[in-house]
Amino acid sequence: MPAVSTHELRFVATPDKGEVSAILDRPDNARTLLVLGHGSGSHMRHPLVAGLSRALVEAGVATFRYQYPYSEKGGGGLDGRQVLLATVRQAVDTAGREAPDLPLFAGGHSMSARMTSLAWAEVPLAQVCGLVFVAFPLNGGKGPTERAEHLRDVRAPLLFLQGSQDKLADLDHVRAVCKKLGAQATLHVVDTADHGFKVLKRSGKTHEQVIEELAKTIAAWTVGVKS
Fold first, then answer.
1. Nearest-angstrom CA–CA distance, 218 and 30
2. pLDDT of residue 46
3. Does domain 4-226 have CATH number 3.40.50.1820?
4. pLDDT (average), residues 9-21
């Protein structure tokens, strides 16, 4: 395990909503930095996000976890889309200032994957080298791939990490999206995994092994993007 420095901080999400919390975990061998957002019903200390952060640190990736205004208050209703997008932007900007020497990537689990890509589609995140989608929530639009249509406006490498049994993202539709995006998209599938990357016993893997697999995949991909 590399030596790790942990820095807890706060940044302004929006002028109206005020400050939110964040955690920067940086191993001494960090080669890249991932801004790692949480899912809609979650928070930055949720076991999935915290566990993935620990595994990423072990794999040589610094992480910047953060809250949205609604999760800072302990949950409840989601913030409006513009607040979510603004928070993503502020998180990216803050992470870049905290570790300006590391190549910067951004994304997160479920909602944060989608919000990060929507933020880029609206106005490019110029300092970000690529986006990491941990269970992109593809289902829920008017059509099977409607939620991914904005990705054509994202001019950056994209990594999709998807479970084959994710009820929020039909795998055939995810594959169709990645095929349409071409070389821009990389897809890594975890067999039998659900939206939270819990797997069936027949997979032969533990949840911890799956999280380690995700972390190693992200680490190798981010280094590859920058090499």
1. 13
2. 96
3. yes
4. 97
